[in-house]
Amino acid sequence: MGLFGEEYQADPHPALAELRRDGPVHRVVTPGGVAFWMVTRWAEARQVLADPALSKRQPVDGLPPELQAAMATQMLLRDPPDHTRLRRLVTAAFTARRIEALRPRVEEITDRLVDGLESPGDLIEALAFPLPFEVICELLGVPGDERGAFRGWSNTIILGQFGTAEFTEAIGDLVGYLRGLFDRKRARPTDDLLGALVSAEGDRLSSDELVSMTILLLIAGHETTVNLIGNAVYLLCRHPDQKKRLLDDPGLVPAAIEETLRLASPSATTTYRVTTRPLTLGEVTIPVGEQVLVSLLAVNRDAQRFTAPDVFDVDRVDGGHLAFGHGIHFCLGAPLARMEAQIALGRLLSRHPDVHLTVPWQDLRWRSGLLMHGLTALPITVAAT
Ligand code: HEM
């Protein structure tokens, strides 16, 4: 049973369960010949994600020189002290107050999208995909009439293939647009995240760092949140008893989102880390200079950590999933993603308690690749049959 191919995409868990049973870490070689180590158990995942001897520093190759710096200074590809400084600067602007202030807008956007749902229709296209994009525009402060172009570049970058001419052109256009937007916000300050970042006093982000940070927020926060909303609705449609629990007690919606994060982790793996000294996990010692990644899908179903790990249970109270990572790179956007997903699920169920799949769940198609875990489409009806 392998990690590549249609069988894995349709259901990755049998292959991951086999690896997890065999040991905490495994050497994997992709069909393209790239070798890395994959961690499949929870305890070792926590160890790896918090280990300062694993470096996140990665070169960004394959872009024209003028775009290189604008892409490569992002904090997800940095170690301390660079990472510490970048994370401190953005955390000062990405406050709980700013996220909470977005709540009424997120509710408004969600209601509009839920009102527009067609039956039958595709929940990904109609709700899960547009919602996080509109919310990130609100958070960053992209003016309403400029969002069409912004959406075009963003979609090409998120859905496109790194290295293609189309992809590079979209990055170039986006970088140019962002530089102009920052200039406008410097000249006329705005009360949004980018406004706060450009007008920070004292130590502040350089122009390349600002571009890099904005693109990171856009990319890190979009597809992951699309997958979380889609996976939550999928799991509830697949488990009508659990859906009924939520309809009887809507206070369980946050717990259902946490259970989705655990059971169907939207970011299937963390991004790469590289060993800077030999790393021993179980009986394996990984040499220096090797790539390591954590399969969040595997570790969040580790029976050594979770009781009945394969069961979707909205009454589960033991928490502890690693879907947002762990350690210094723990997801900056977790509170925002949770808020969006809770609102989306809550509003969808209260408006359409009868939502259900129009195809058997086994026929649904999942996005390919090891990094993300989300549906390409989620065909639903919202009218009672
Ligand atoms: C980092 C998952 C939504 C911004 C991470 C990491 C994970 C993750 C696993 C750690 C990567 C690693 O250690 O290699 C998710 C999931 C999301 C989500 C599952 C939605 C369900 C968001 C949102 C934003 C965001 C909405 C922002 C708008 C970031 C940033 C980092 C990050 C900036 C890098 C933090 C650092 O390097 O210090 N995310 N994310 N994420 N995420 Fe998220």
Automatic annotation (TrEMBL):
A single GO molecular function term of this UniProt record? monooxygenase activity
Its keywords, alphabetically, are: Heme, Iron, Metal-binding, Monooxygenase, Oxidoreductase
Q: Residues of the signal sequence?
A: none
Pfam families recorded: p450
Work out whether the entry's keyword set contains Heme: yes
Q: Does the keyword Metal-binding apply?
A: yes
GO BP term, example: antibiotic biosynthetic process
Give the protein family: Belongs to the cytochrome P450 family.
Q: What is this protein called?
A: Cytochrome
Organism from which the protein derives: Actinoplanes awajinensis subsp. mycoplanecinus
